[in-house]
Amino acid sequence: MFNANLVSDKPVCIHWFRHGLRLHDNPALLNAVEDGGELYPIFIFDGEVAGTRTAGYNRMRFLLESLRDLDEQFIKDGGRLFVFIGHLVTILSKLFRELSVSKLTFDADVEAIWHERDTQVRRLCEEYNVECVEKVSHVLWDPQVILQNNGGNPPLTFSLFNKVATAVGDPPRPVASPDLSKITFKIKSDHDELFGIPDINSLGVFAESEEQDQRHNDWKGGESKALVLFQHRMRVEAMAFSCGNVMPNQTFPAVAGPPLSLSAYLRFGCLSIRKFYWALRDTFVQLNPRKAFTISVIGQLVWREYFYTMSVNNINFDKMESNPICLNIPWHEDKEKLRRWEQGETGFPWIDAIMKQLKSEGWIHHVCRHATSTFLTRGDLWLSWEEGLKVFDKYLLDADWSVCAGSWMWMSSSAFEKTLQCLKCYCPVRYGRKMDPAGVYIRRYLPVLKDMPLRYLFGPWKAPKSVQEKARCVIGEDYPEPMVDHGKASTENYSRMMEVKNKLIASGRRIDHCGPASSEEVSMFVWMPGTHKGTCSSDMETCEATDSTVCDELVEI
Ligand code: FAD
Ligand code: MG
């Protein structure tokens, strides 16, 4: 791999990128450059790294863009990123030997699925007498520290999590950026050929649809883009703080507007969570010197922490069976229904537009995630959340192991919900109309409906045949009939859920199942615009499962 003239007498350090794809606030990388020796920044495609096993085209492209951005940043200081494809241990051992490596540094991957790999790598370091430096900066609080401070257990409610985190203390502030001018890089002239960033197709990943190359919102991976978007986001936050608001993109969820999200950048570590947290907190305090800082300013970031912590010692967190916090619910199996949902062919334009956006762009707003996940599970189709998770895991840019599974469990009432108390479902007609009142979102992602009058856009099967013909969208020919009768299906599913609940109560067994401590907690998670009261209230976006007429009425404006 390397020839002898690359070997040096200076200390040689490898910084191994997995997540944490950034130079700023990267304590492990900072440690790597401290000795002022030789640095090899590497990335290894081992078939698993950074969730690549389940990643489809969107997320793999985002990852490759992020690696290109890192490479370009190293080039500015005379370095390069070294990319390898193959078996992790074989590659690392070879590098340790050939480069006489003295230190390996990496940002800790805190999720349970990475523990075994990293234990193996720590052992390998011992074997080769390589110092192994691992730093936690992908999360605000080290989940193991939270657990230690909670008697060794994950805190079962969000408010308990907050209490424990408060007792642990403020999260660390970001560290300085590394001074790459202090270190030596040794680059070979055939670097690109040997260690260049691979083409996406050579990794066996291909576009799943043409739309993926004609995205309306063109997410591009990498730290440079993350920092530009971060500056913009902070301007929006500052404006909201000045007007007495917090969480601007949730209070006014603009599903068709330019997204303010940084979630994919946080997921790959292109943006430091600690940088985001402290910027929000400092800006709030600066603009509101007389107001107390409360969790609502940074609440969403803490939900992310909560899911990371809840999953940290639970290798089955993404499964129903053998997952102690997940209720076993007898979901149906139906491949055709699942296919129609995934393809955006349910016949409900709001749900289908969401699925089209997910598949083509890899990002959908939180309210859209709610709508489509309840539709698949307890709302309409009664299919397993594990199937929904697989689809999100393929297409979503920000899908990570813990947050995605945790959110699916919550949305399907499988966990994070107090003994199935919150059973109202979202109406796929009414909720859509509320979130996309002018129909811009639906028309953008479902062009087949672009000429359908707004009056029928959310329930086009209700349009008279002449209106359908005029809109060049005949239901059943150009666009599918609704695959379920929402009123009927949601009523049946409500009864099924009550049955699950009654059986649980009759069994007398303690439900080892985490849940929200209060309705405020639910509303923080659920983001109901305007009300912030959540699905447990009688918001007009949700519908009583027992009321089958409500959705039909709403087709008429
Ligand atoms: P912001 O309001 O800007 O929030 C800031 C950051 O906080 C987000 O970028 C994200 O990192 C975190 N965050 C926000 N809301 C939540 C939440 N409810 N739970 C945990 N973290 C949160 N988020 C992911 O990051 N990865 C996932 O795989 C994921 N899967 C989801 C699956 C389902 C079924 C649902 C309902 C939600 C899921 N979410 C996931 C949570 C949430 O929808 C996204 O984090 C959010 O939409 C990202 O938009 P934003 O960056 O504008 O959020
Ligand atoms: Mg279970």
Which keywords apply here?
557 residues; mainly alpha; 24 helices; 7 strands; binds flavin-adenine dinucleotide; binds magnesium ion
Describe the model:
- The chain has 557 residues and is mainly α.
- 45% of the residues lie in helices and 6% in strands.
- The chain has 24 helices and 7 strands.
- It has helices at residues 27-34, 57-76, 88-99, 115-127, 143-148, 158-168, 191-195, 223-242, 248-251, 263-268, 273-287, 299-311, 335-343, 349-361, 366-379, 385-395, 401-411, 430-435, 440-445, 454-457, 465-470, 486-507, 519-526, 550-554; strands at 12-17, 38-45, 82-85, 103-107, 131-135, 425-426, 542-543.
- The protein has a 5-stranded parallel sheet with strand order 3-2-1-4-5, sandwiched between helices.
- Helix 8 (223-242) packs parallel to helix 11 (273-287), helix 14 (349-361) packs across helix 15 (366-379) and helix 16 packs antiparallel against helix 17 (401-411).
- The longest helix is centred in the C-terminal third of the chain and has 22 residues, at 486-507.
- The termini are far apart.
- Mean pLDDT is 89; it is low at 528-557.
- Magnesium ion is lined by residues 320-321, 323, 326, 328.
Number of contiguous helices: 24
Taking the alpha carbons of the first and last residues, their distance comes to 68 Å
Class by alpha and beta content = mainly alpha
What is the strand content?
Answer: 5-15%
